[in-house]
Each structure stands twice: as C-alpha cells, then as structure tokens.
Amino acid sequence: MRYEMMLPHQIRTAIADNWPVALPLGVLEYHGEHMAVGMDTLAVIKALELIETEGNIVILPAFYYGAASYAVEPPEGNGSLQVDGDALTPFARQLFTSLLRVGFRNIHGFIHHQTENFTAGMPTDLAFKSGARQAIFAFLEKTRGEGWWGNANMNDYYGQHAAGDNPFNWIRIHPLLGDEGLGAYPFDHAGEGETSLMMAMCPEAVDMAHASDKQWYTQSAQKASRETGLRGQAFILAHLRRVLFSKS
Q: What architecture does CATH give domain 3-178?
C-alpha cells in the first residue's frame, strides 16, 4: 500500500503485522541523451510497484534528491541535481525517527545509484545508513532510558540477536540488485544494462532516437533490449522477495 493513501486503521494493521516498509532512494542524474534523469530512482519505484502485488508492503513516497555528484557530466543543460551527503544525513535521521515513532520496525531503503561497491558505500546510501543508526540509538535511549543495554534485563541480548530480535535491523538499506544480479547482469551507467531496465520497467523513460555514442559509457546502449531488461527485472524481484518476504 502507498503510505500517503493509507488510513490510520490500515497503518495500525501494518504495524501490528510487522509489514515491511520500503523507501525508494535515488537521484536525478544525467543518463545520456536517450534516457530520463530519474532512471536510478524510477528503477526502484517500478520494482516496488511489481513486488507490491505479491504481498503486504508499505511503500513510502520516493526520495529523488540524493547525492548524484557531477562525476558523469556537469549539470548545466544536462539536469543532474546534487545534494551533499552531509545534508542528507540529518534528513534521514529525522525521517527514520518519525517512522519509528509511528511504530514501524521493519523499514528498508532501496537504492540503485552507485551500488557496485555497496559494502564500501557511496554518499547517498552512507548518509541514509548513518541517519538510520543515529535514529535507532536515539530512539532506544529515549524509550528505554540511558544504560538500556547494560540493564540486567538485557542479559540475553545476544540470545535475542540469534533469535532475530535485533533493534539495529529495524532499519536497513539495500542495493536494488543483489549479489546474484550484480554478478550476472550488466551493471553500467546509461549503457546496455540500465537502458534495458528502463525499456522493460519504464519504457516512457527511454527514447533511442536520441541515443549517442559520443560518451564511452553510453556506447553499449545500442545493444539494449526489453528482453535483457526483463532478465534484470527478474534478478531484482528475486532479491526484493528475499529481503522483504523471507522469514529466515
């Protein structure tokens, strides 16, 4: 369900049943002459719209204003919008604090932008990871009091972790493509992989009549196809199912 369309009784049901809450994260960035600047975020939105048909899930309004950087092209006339990670972290902390106060404990952010080295992190995902950690620590201290971890009633803390009850898993940030997809699908910027994804998931965001091989990173876009995009979509949906619906 879309969060902005939910009634309070539906929100209370989602809380009681611990529905996953998904936040699409992304940027507005130049993706060649043939593709919309919102590609990275659109891929996440469209994937969540598909997975929404398979189970109970809350989808938050998308956040487009991440740290695009100007590494690909300068913004003038090209459309990239850059918000520094230092500005994103306080926003993320406030957003996640609000979601925790509402009552959600199964919150997931998904991002496609710059996730080829996700373990090391890039500015947008690092900002939201940091904001999430800060929000959880502050929320625990506010609701359980200072010294909550050292309290005698937490003597089975690590046992609780083993049983899956870990407050630091209340909020997690994930790449849109899991490890399996990254190893088997062409990961690029505005090339065959991303162009194919948009052909399959959001065809109105692609116009190959404007494709150019002027930039090295767009040259492989000529090989893009809807069939390749559907293969990537399958990897994405399998990853989302594991993250959102797996009981393990």
A: 3-Layer(aba) Sandwich (3.40)
